[in-house]
Amino acid sequence: MLGPVILAASRSDRMRRLISAAPVTKQVVDRFIPGEGVDDIVPIIEDLTARGLELTMDVVGEDITTPEQAGAARDAYLALIDRIKDLELGEKVEMSVKLSMFGQALDGGHELALANVRPVVEAAAAIGTTVTLDAEDHTTLDSMFAIHEELRKDFPQTGCVIQAYLFRTEADARRLAAAGSRVRLVKGAYKEPAEVAYQNKHEIDKAYVRVLRVLMEGEGYPMVGSHDPRLITIAQELARTAGRKLDEYEFQMLYGIRGDEHLRLAAEGHRMRVYTAYGTDWYGYFMRRLAEKPANLRFFLRSMVSKG
């Protein structure tokens, strides 16, 4: 399986230098990350919302080594929220944040991440939108869930992400599937050991369906994070069986992947949210996109051969 190899490469400084220096890389990266700054991303936001889509915005960058960098990440999100306010699109555009960007891995990182993410959540609420806390590797999840619980005391609309490939996730879903909760379910895109996560695609898919059933039958708001046509069909059937209306759950997919499907689902009346990343520190995000789906890797390699 190439996925684990690519994920290991995502942590390699040598591979980072090699891939970043390839002439074709930026052309391919632009497929998944359509800009480096807020000014770059505004036309994307305007275009997608005009097409009936909603967005969740991710300012990429996880290699935070100082509190000052964590503060800069917070400020980048605050600047984004100011622009969304100017666009009057608060009801259509939310934020996705990785707590590692806000200093979670530093000394005193739990408290630092909470202190940095809170003003982002406050600012988002002030313009009528919200924040979803992205899941990262399994060692960070207890801290993420604790911060999520703390934020929901004042901002109950704050969402979080759970990952189907982890053994713990079904129990997490049962705890989270309560009234008012917002939970995005994804398969998972980090290299996890066999002691904590399923390694086989078939087992991961089965776990995804089990967890999605828990969310659909619960009282919260499920967010179906998948590009898999079979899982999308299953999600629709689970929603119907649970008696959910079209505005009582949503689909989420990545910018640059299956764009026609985004529009098809929206045209059918589904809430369809596009996970849209931007920023200069794109490497880790880009490598996980390659690892998630062989077609993404083939696209990159073909581009390297034809234009490199």
Structure, described:
The structure is a single chain. With 308 residues, the protein is an alpha/beta fold. It has 13 helices and eight strands. The chain has helices at residues 2-9, 13-21, 25-32, 38-50, 67-87, 109-126, 141-154, 169-176, 201-217, 229-241, 259-267, 283-292, 294-307; strands at residues 54-59, 93-97, 131-133, 159-163, 182-186, 221-225, 250-254, 271-278. It has an eight-stranded parallel β-barrel, surrounded by seven helices. Strand 6 (221-225), helix 10 and strand 7 form a beta-alpha-beta unit. Helix 6 packs parallel to helix 7. The longest helix is centred in the N-terminal third of the chain and has 21 residues, at 67-87. The chain is globular. The protein starts with a helix and ends with a helix. Residues 303-308 have low confidence and may be disordered.
